[in-house]
Amino acid sequence: MTPPSPPADAPIAALRKALRNERIAAREALPDADRQTLTRRIEAHLDTLMARLAPRCLAFCWPWRGEVDLRPWARRWLAADPARQAALPVVLTPARPMAFLRWRPDAPMATDHHGIPIPAGDEVVSPALLIVPLNVFDAAGYRLGYGGGYFDRTLAALDPTPTCVGVAFELARAGSTHPQPHDQPMDWIVTEAGVFVGSGSRAGYATKQLNFHPSQG
Protein backbone atom coordinates (compact mmCIF):
# COMPACT_ATOMS: atom_id res chain seq x y z
CA MET A 1 0.00 0.00 0.00
CA THR A 2 1.33 3.44 -0.94
CA PRO A 3 1.48 5.77 2.09
CA PRO A 4 -0.86 8.77 1.87
CA SER A 5 0.76 11.98 0.68
CA PRO A 6 1.92 14.17 3.56
CA PRO A 7 1.16 17.90 3.73
CA ALA A 8 3.37 19.50 1.11
CA ASP A 9 3.84 22.77 3.01
CA ALA A 10 4.82 21.32 6.40
CA PRO A 11 8.16 20.14 7.78
CA ILE A 12 7.23 16.48 8.10
CA ALA A 13 10.13 15.50 10.32
CA ALA A 14 9.17 18.20 12.82
CA LEU A 15 5.51 17.14 12.72
CA ARG A 16 6.40 13.53 13.38
CA LYS A 17 8.80 14.43 16.19
CA ALA A 18 6.25 16.65 17.90
CA LEU A 19 3.54 14.01 17.60
CA ARG A 20 5.87 11.33 18.98
CA ASN A 21 6.93 13.45 21.94
CA GLU A 22 3.36 14.44 22.73
CA ARG A 23 2.04 10.87 22.81
CA ILE A 24 5.01 9.48 24.74
CA ALA A 25 4.49 12.17 27.38
CA ALA A 26 0.79 11.30 27.61
CA ARG A 27 1.64 7.61 27.97
CA GLU A 28 4.23 8.21 30.67
CA ALA A 29 1.69 10.32 32.57
CA LEU A 30 -0.90 7.53 32.80
CA PRO A 31 -1.83 6.85 36.45
CA ASP A 32 -0.81 3.37 37.58
CA ALA A 33 -4.39 2.24 38.18
CA ASP A 34 -5.45 3.30 34.69
CA ARG A 35 -2.37 1.68 33.15
CA GLN A 36 -3.14 -1.63 34.85
CA THR A 37 -6.78 -1.57 33.75
CA LEU A 38 -5.92 -0.74 30.14
CA THR A 39 -3.15 -3.34 30.06
CA ARG A 40 -5.53 -6.09 31.21
CA ARG A 41 -7.89 -5.21 28.36
CA ILE A 42 -5.03 -5.29 25.86
CA GLU A 43 -3.92 -8.67 27.18
CA ALA A 44 -7.43 -10.07 26.69
CA HIS A 45 -7.55 -8.85 23.08
CA LEU A 46 -4.07 -10.26 22.47
CA ASP A 47 -5.22 -13.62 23.80
CA THR A 48 -8.06 -13.64 21.27
CA LEU A 49 -5.82 -12.70 18.35
CA MET A 50 -3.02 -15.11 19.29
CA ALA A 51 -5.51 -17.98 19.64
CA ARG A 52 -6.50 -17.38 16.02
CA LEU A 53 -3.07 -16.66 14.53
CA ALA A 54 -1.47 -19.45 16.60
CA PRO A 55 2.24 -18.53 16.31
CA ARG A 56 4.73 -21.00 17.74
CA CYS A 57 7.40 -18.33 18.15
CA LEU A 58 6.82 -14.63 18.71
CA ALA A 59 8.90 -11.61 19.62
CA PHE A 60 7.93 -8.75 21.89
CA CYS A 61 9.74 -5.75 23.33
CA TRP A 62 10.90 -5.02 26.85
CA PRO A 63 8.78 -2.03 27.96
CA TRP A 64 10.43 1.37 27.74
CA ARG A 65 9.16 4.85 28.52
CA GLY A 66 5.74 3.72 29.68
CA GLU A 67 5.04 1.26 26.85
CA VAL A 68 2.51 -1.51 27.44
CA ASP A 69 4.26 -4.04 29.69
CA LEU A 70 3.69 -7.43 28.06
CA ARG A 71 6.14 -9.40 30.21
CA PRO A 72 3.44 -10.96 32.45
CA TRP A 73 1.35 -11.76 29.39
CA ALA A 74 4.35 -13.35 27.62
CA ARG A 75 5.08 -15.51 30.67
CA ARG A 76 1.50 -16.81 30.67
CA TRP A 77 1.56 -17.36 26.90
CA LEU A 78 4.74 -19.44 27.18
CA ALA A 79 3.47 -21.40 30.18
CA ALA A 80 0.35 -22.49 28.29
CA ASP A 81 2.37 -24.61 25.81
CA PRO A 82 5.94 -25.85 26.32
CA ALA A 83 6.49 -25.88 22.53
CA ARG A 84 6.16 -22.11 22.33
CA GLN A 85 9.12 -19.75 22.11
CA ALA A 86 9.46 -16.03 22.78
CA ALA A 87 12.21 -13.63 21.80
CA LEU A 88 13.36 -10.05 22.26
CA PRO A 89 14.76 -7.89 19.45
CA VAL A 90 18.42 -6.94 19.75
CA VAL A 91 20.50 -4.43 17.80
CA LEU A 92 23.78 -6.26 17.20
CA THR A 93 25.14 -3.89 14.55
CA PRO A 94 24.13 -0.22 14.09
CA ALA A 95 22.14 0.53 10.91
CA ARG A 96 21.58 -3.19 10.33
CA PRO A 97 18.44 -5.34 10.81
CA MET A 98 17.83 -6.51 14.35
CA ALA A 99 18.30 -10.08 15.51
CA PHE A 100 15.87 -11.92 17.80
CA LEU A 101 17.31 -13.66 20.84
CA ARG A 102 15.30 -16.30 22.64
CA TRP A 103 13.82 -15.12 25.95
CA ARG A 104 12.69 -17.22 28.87
CA PRO A 105 11.20 -15.79 32.09
CA ASP A 106 14.15 -17.11 34.10
CA ALA A 107 16.84 -16.27 31.53
CA PRO A 108 19.83 -14.13 32.60
CA MET A 109 19.69 -10.65 31.11
CA ALA A 110 22.18 -8.07 29.91
CA THR A 111 21.52 -4.50 28.69
CA ASP A 112 21.90 -2.86 25.30
CA HIS A 113 23.41 0.55 24.56
CA HIS A 114 20.11 2.23 25.53
CA GLY A 115 20.10 0.45 28.88
CA ILE A 116 17.19 -1.80 27.82
CA PRO A 117 17.37 -5.40 29.08
CA ILE A 118 18.13 -8.06 26.46
CA PRO A 119 18.82 -11.80 26.77
CA ALA A 120 22.38 -12.55 27.83
CA GLY A 121 22.43 -15.71 25.70
CA ASP A 122 23.11 -16.00 21.99
CA GLU A 123 20.29 -18.30 20.78
CA VAL A 124 18.90 -16.59 17.67
CA VAL A 125 15.36 -17.53 16.63
CA SER A 126 13.08 -16.58 13.73
CA PRO A 127 9.73 -15.45 15.12
CA ALA A 128 6.65 -15.89 12.95
CA LEU A 129 5.02 -12.91 14.67
CA LEU A 130 6.34 -9.63 16.03
CA ILE A 131 4.56 -7.61 18.70
CA VAL A 132 5.68 -4.06 18.02
CA PRO A 133 5.23 -1.12 20.45
CA LEU A 134 3.66 1.98 18.96
CA ASN A 135 4.36 5.52 20.13
CA VAL A 136 1.84 6.77 17.58
CA PHE A 137 -0.30 4.90 15.06
CA ASP A 138 -3.00 5.59 12.50
CA ALA A 139 -5.91 3.60 11.07
CA ALA A 140 -3.79 2.27 8.19
CA GLY A 141 -1.37 0.67 10.64
CA TYR A 142 1.53 3.07 10.15
CA ARG A 143 3.49 3.81 13.30
CA LEU A 144 6.02 6.12 14.83
CA GLY A 145 8.78 4.49 16.82
CA TYR A 146 11.72 6.41 18.25
CA GLY A 147 13.15 7.53 14.93
CA GLY A 148 15.97 5.00 14.65
CA GLY A 149 14.34 2.96 11.89
CA TYR A 150 15.19 -0.37 13.57
CA PHE A 151 11.89 -2.11 12.91
CA ASP A 152 11.49 -0.71 9.39
CA ARG A 153 14.97 -1.96 8.40
CA THR A 154 14.33 -5.32 9.98
CA LEU A 155 10.93 -5.86 8.36
CA ALA A 156 12.29 -4.85 4.96
CA ALA A 157 15.06 -7.46 5.28
CA LEU A 158 13.12 -10.44 6.64
CA ASP A 159 11.94 -13.11 4.22
CA PRO A 160 9.35 -14.37 4.86
CA THR A 161 8.01 -11.29 6.56
CA PRO A 162 6.57 -12.11 9.98
CA THR A 163 3.07 -11.05 10.92
CA CYS A 164 3.30 -7.69 12.70
CA VAL A 165 0.98 -6.83 15.57
CA GLY A 166 1.26 -3.28 16.85
CA VAL A 167 0.33 -2.76 20.50
CA ALA A 168 -0.44 0.55 22.18
CA PHE A 169 -2.83 2.41 24.40
CA GLU A 170 -5.58 4.21 22.48
CA LEU A 171 -4.02 7.56 23.44
CA ALA A 172 -1.40 6.80 20.77
CA ARG A 173 -3.99 6.88 17.96
CA ALA A 174 -3.68 9.78 15.50
CA GLY A 175 -5.38 10.84 12.29
CA SER A 176 -2.09 10.33 10.43
CA THR A 177 1.51 9.52 11.26
CA HIS A 178 2.57 11.26 8.03
CA PRO A 179 4.14 7.99 6.76
CA GLN A 180 7.23 8.03 4.60
CA PRO A 181 8.14 5.61 1.76
CA HIS A 182 10.33 3.46 4.03
CA ASP A 183 7.66 3.03 6.73
CA GLN A 184 6.31 -0.49 7.18
CA PRO A 185 2.64 -0.72 8.26
CA MET A 186 1.39 -3.18 10.83
CA ASP A 187 -0.88 -6.09 9.89
CA TRP A 188 -2.82 -5.75 13.12
CA ILE A 189 -3.26 -3.14 15.85
CA VAL A 190 -4.28 -4.11 19.39
CA THR A 191 -5.35 -1.52 21.95
CA GLU A 192 -7.64 -1.57 24.96
CA ALA A 193 -10.47 -0.83 22.49
CA GLY A 194 -10.00 -4.06 20.52
CA VAL A 195 -8.27 -5.62 17.52
CA PHE A 196 -7.98 -3.64 14.29
CA VAL A 197 -6.71 -4.64 10.87
CA GLY A 198 -3.86 -2.55 9.44
CA SER A 199 -2.61 -2.39 5.87
CA GLY A 200 0.46 -4.62 6.13
CA SER A 201 1.25 -7.16 3.46
CA ARG A 202 -0.50 -9.96 5.36
CA ALA A 203 -3.60 -8.00 6.36
CA GLY A 204 -5.77 -9.13 3.46
CA TYR A 205 -4.95 -12.79 4.04
CA ALA A 206 -5.46 -12.48 7.77
CA THR A 207 -8.79 -10.68 7.40
CA LYS A 208 -10.09 -13.35 5.05
CA GLN A 209 -8.96 -16.16 7.33
CA LEU A 210 -10.04 -14.67 10.64
CA ASN A 211 -13.19 -12.84 9.57
CA PHE A 212 -12.17 -9.56 11.15
CA HIS A 213 -13.56 -6.40 9.57
CA PRO A 214 -10.93 -3.68 9.05
CA SER A 215 -12.68 -1.45 11.59
CA GLN A 216 -13.68 -4.20 14.02
CA GLY A 217 -12.22 -4.79 17.41
Summary, kept brief:
This protein has 217 residues and is α/β, with parallel strands linked by helices. It has helices at 12-28, 32-53, 71-79, 150-157, 203-210, and strands at 57-59, 85-90, 99-103, 109-111, 117-119, 129-133, 136-137, 143-144, 163-167, 188-191, 194-197. Mean pLDDT is 89; it is low at 204-211 and 213-217.
* Quaternary class: single chain
Low-confidence runs of at least 5 consecutive residues: 204-211, 213-217
What is the arithmetic mean of pLDDT? 89
What's the alpha carbon Rg, rounded to whole Å?
A: 17 Å
Helix and strand run: HHEHEEEEEEEHEEEH
Large-scale geometry: globular
* DSSP E strands, number: 11
Binned, the helix content reads 25-40%
The helix-and-strand class reads alpha/beta
Number of helices: 5
> Largest beta sheet: what is the strand line-up?
3-2-1-6-9-10-11
Percent strand equals 15-25%
